[in-house]
Specification:
Number of domains: 3
CATH topology of the largest domain: Fumarase C, Chain A, domain 2
Strand order of the largest sheet: 1-2
Order of helices and strands: HHHHHHEEHEHEHHEHHEHHHHHH
CATH superfamily of the largest domain: Fumarase/aspartase (Central domain)
Structural class: mainly alpha
Bound molecules: arginine
Helix content: 55-70%
Largest sheet: 2 strands, antiparallel
């Protein structure tokens, strides 16, 4: 591979070391950004009178040409994307091309390219996240007046609107999207002009370069600018927490899809079969999403470990940021894209859910509250309802089937209206706090969600 730094060396790199050192195989995806950064830098060089307007025109035209013929470059010949751009530029325009690297270093260039790449990817990722959020909102709307058991410790707890379940996941992914915006803001700082570490000996207008490349501002400190990869870690954390949320959702889907629960049915288009058991239809998409989560944690750990203990400023360790970042970007986009479609096609099996909703004990809090609303202190009503539950368990009876005489033996407060509470919609509607599991609350949540998505 040709080197742009060969001057002080007496011999070329050992073949294995050359391969080990090179990054072109993966950083070639930065080509577009490297070319754009090159154009902005060229403009600044002309403004600083380092190159003539004629040279500026020549370099810019050649960079534009390369942008159009991206595929024509043979990256295997170059150490990295920056060497490739410079090499191809010189091939096109000769000596003038050799002026492009005046006042810049690959150290400030690579991190500029990476930030530009990430900003674009974040913009796309935001759309994907919004699509998922919109789908969850639509599903919540369809399920507002449908009910399901809510769980704690994976045991029947209280009845909730099914829309509430969807909106719980909406909240997780909404937080992820907000986090992503913040990550985007932190990536929006322009390092070019920081040179190798100390800045440049030319009057390069860094504010102009920042504006040309659509960054919010130039970086404040050259030493930090070339060594900083916090924005990479930020994204890796975003990917890790988002994957965690997908994994939790996956786990619930896998449970709800199990033979024992059978609450939901996964569309054939999103299930796979078994090579030996003809009856099988497996939730592989959810299992894969759950299984891939660890890779994001690994990437985050790798990123943090890469930075830990690195002296200022640039060290070659930082080349590894791209290996993990590119992979994480690709994977998290893929997971959210497939999950959005996957969720859209999930169907509920109402008969099976009804069987679970027939578990009277999910009304136990409602029974205790019935007593408390009629004056009994809650600790008393909790204890008394517990005794009713115990009686039902010992006598294999349901709470809704106990005769009124029996209720009255427990407390004279009970009247016939106690039987009104044993309905899923009654129980869910009874929740009247802001953000609760009632259909009214879910409607409010959906309204807020739609306003958020419009922003
Ligand atoms: N390929 C390198 C990277 O990705 C570019 C910067 C090289 N700088 C250097 N001083 N060797 O980090």
């Amino acid at each position: 591979m040709k080197k742009i730094w060969e001057g002080r060396f007496e011999k070329g790199l050992d073949e294995t070391a050359d391969k080990f050192n090179a990054s072109s195989s993966f950083d070639k995806i930065l080509l577009k950004y490297d070319l754009l950064a090159g154009m902005a830098h060229t403009k600044a060089l002309a403004k600083a009178k380092v190159i003539t307007p004629n040279e500026e025109g020549k370099i810019t035209a050649a960079l534009k040409k390369l942008l159009k013929n991206e595929k024509a470059i043979d990256f295997t010949k170059y150490e990295d994307v920056h060497s490739a751009v410079e090499g191809e530029l010189v091939k096109l325009i000769g000596e003038t091309g050799k002026k492009i690297h005046t006042g810049r270093s690959r150290n400030d260039l690579v991190v500029t390219d990476t930030r530009m790449y990430l900003k674009d990817e974040i913009a796309e990722m935001k759309k994907i996240m919004k699509a998922l959020l919109a789908t969850l909102t639509n599903l919540a709307e369809k399920n507002t007046d449908k009910y399901m058991p809510g769980y704690t410790h994976l045991q029947h707890a209280q009845i909730i609107s099914r829309g509430h379940w969807f909106m719980a996941y909406f909240q997780m992914f909404r937080r992820d999207l907000e986090l992503l915006s913040f990550v985007g803001e932190r990536a929006n700082v322009m390092p070019l002009g920081s040179g190798a570490l100390a800045g440049a000996n030319y009057a390069i207008d860094r504010h102009l370069v920042a504006k040309e490349l659509q960054f919010a501002e130039p970086s404040q400190n050259s030493l930090d600018a070339v060594a900083d990869r916090d924005f990479v870690i930020d994204f890796l954390y975003f990917a890790a927490i988002t994957a965690t949320h997908v994994s939790r959702l996956s786990e619930e889907i896998i449970i709800f899809n199990s033979s024992e629960y059978s609450f939901i049915e996964i569309d054939d288009a999103f299930s796979t079969g078994s090579s030996i058991m003809p009856q099988k239809k497996n939730p592989d998409i959810a299992e894969l999403a759950r299984g891939k989560t660890g890779e994001f944690y690994g990437a985050l750990m790798a990123g943090l470990t890469m930075l830990k203990g690195l002296p200022l400023a640039y060290n070659k360790d930082l080349q590894e940021d791209k290996v993990i970042l590119f992979e994480a970007v690709k994977k998290i986009k893929e997971i959210i894209t497939v999950f959005e479609k996957f969720m859209r096609h999930i169907k509920f099996r109402q008969e099976k859910i009804n069987e679970s909703l027939a578990d009277d004990f999910m009304y136990a809090v409602d029974v205790a509250d019935y007593l408390s609303k009629k004056g009994m202190p809650f600790r008393e009503s909790h204890k008394l309802t517990g005794q009713i539950v115990l009686y039902c368990l010992q006598n294999r009876e349901g709470m809704s089937k106990l005769p009124i005489e029996k209720y009255k033996q427990f407390s004279e407060i009970f009247e016939k209206d106690i039987y009104n509470i044993f309905k899923p919609e009654k129980s869910a509607h009874a929740k009247c706090t802001f953000g609760s599991a009632s259909p009214e609350s879910v409607k409010g949540q959906i309204k807020t969600a739609r306003a958020f998505l419009k922003k």
